[in-house]
Amino acid sequence: MQGPSIRRAVFGRTSTVLGRTRALWPAALSIAFAAAFCWPLFGHFGELGVAFDWDQHQLYHWVPYETVRTYGQIPLWNPFECGGMPMLANPQSRWWSPFFLLHLWLGPARAMHIEIVAHIALAWLGAFVLGRAYGLSRLAAMAPAIVFAGCSSFYLHVGEGHTGWLAYAYMPWILAAVALGRPFIAGLLLALAIGEGGTYAVPHTILVLGVLALYHAVTERSTRPLVDLACAGAVAVGLAAPKLLLVQDLMSRLPRLIESTESTSLFLLIEGLFSHVQDLAIDVGGRPYRFHEYGAYISPIAFAAALIGIVRQRRWSMPWMLVAAGGLVLGLGYTFGGEHSPWALLHRLPIFDSQRVPSRFMLPAVLAFGMLAGRGVDALLPRLGRDALTALLVIAAIDAAMVGPINLRYVFDGSVTARPRAQSFVQYRDESTATMYTLARANMGALTCYEPLDPEPVPAGMNEPDYRGEQYLLEGGTVSLVEWTPNRLVFDVASDGPNVLVVNQNHDPSWRVVSGRGEVTAYQGLLAVRVPAGAARLVLAHQSQWFIPGVVLAITTLFVAGPTALGRRPRPLRTSANRSPRGASGTAFRGSRG
What we know:
By secondary structure, this protein is α+β, with helices and mostly antiparallel strands. It is built from 20 helices and 12 strands. It has a 4-stranded antiparallel β-sheet with strand order 5-8-11-10, with no helix packed on it. A hairpin with a 6-residue loop joins strand 1 and strand 2 (about 85).
């Protein structure tokens, strides 16, 4: 089979009405699956609570929405959090994504509901495509789709408020794109995951890509897998540059070097994989986290199929066994070797040294188990038949539906207390760190805040005794606020001599004087401007020096790599219809000899 289209190779022939129907049914089934598994959302469309981490993540979604809709500005600065800090540069920000258009249209609450359903559908369809890319039959490819998209980890983390967890939906798509010889598509999807705050999904996906590429490079004696991986990485960096360059700049100033010495017992890992009782409210025996950090349910039916796949097709199964074993061993954390454990060694590397909770590696392991289960289904197909295996897959899906989705009810927990809106923006120090979203909606900056980058809020709150206003001069004179927006501030300043204008926000090197005379500086950590004597209008703007170069790099990458990728013929697949029972591994990497 020479040079088929990816759609034809993955979904089947499309030259007839029947063929087109066969090509569309996986997409329709993925939507139906997502709707069935996201049922707790449909009775509360457009509602979001502030329980758990939802307060923090609602802020991440509302500030970009408000910045664009109300002020018509690019969301580069977030004055509402921790005294002011970069918005796009925050690794967990999610607005650098096409889904942000949905937020602007429907508002963050309704858009998030649709996003959750859409990402579960993408996770199902992506795992199906990955199965087809690695030679599974259409029926067998439903096994990784059900196992991955039905895994309780998605629903537990979303219930907790970890909206960046949705970026894991792109993992199987990225793996499939590299396997099919489409590094541009893989890089594009990696960039999308970065833009959607995939702070764990992206490093984990890259790690899995590395394991698979290295395995196939060694076993096939070819550098092609490694070259494709490098190309995908280069495309991802280029397309995500508008965010990545800002993230790198911020992380160089606020490095998140966090200790992570957690131990996940073997019993807890097994419970997370197989227990039917997985609820955010469960106390996990004195562990530091609730069950969202341990739950990654796999139906016993799927696990049994995975074991059969390993026994019947050991060579094909080997790379996925490595991914599964690696995910589980890393997930054990310090339990497996203490300071010399695989997790402790990995945690010393850049990017991973900013992560914690090693049990989060269980989701990549679940995807690997899904692929192995698919191979088991194909091995059983001649003996049990299509109808029996279809029934078993349906039962496995129902089993998974009984575990994870119920946790989506926590999306609505915690009432949003309405506060009177301040006529002009002010900083406020509350007693709780869980009121950031509520304060932002009231046009207030939250000085008592939760932010993983751990900035130091230095402004004074309007309810504190040392508060001097949102702007003031150190040496007398007068200053009045003419215009306030997140990224632009306008003041009328009058002073008899040289003076310093202090703005009650954290200093950031991206603030510039764009009109009037003055020099931006820092005063005790606050944003300040040295101004000359006299009366003048002063305009400050937040203009990151890295954003425009990042946009230029992204556009250049798109126009340079895009046409090359479109003109490249996809690698032939070794599907269930033409794979050798004794020969090659049955993967797309070896398909060039198919």
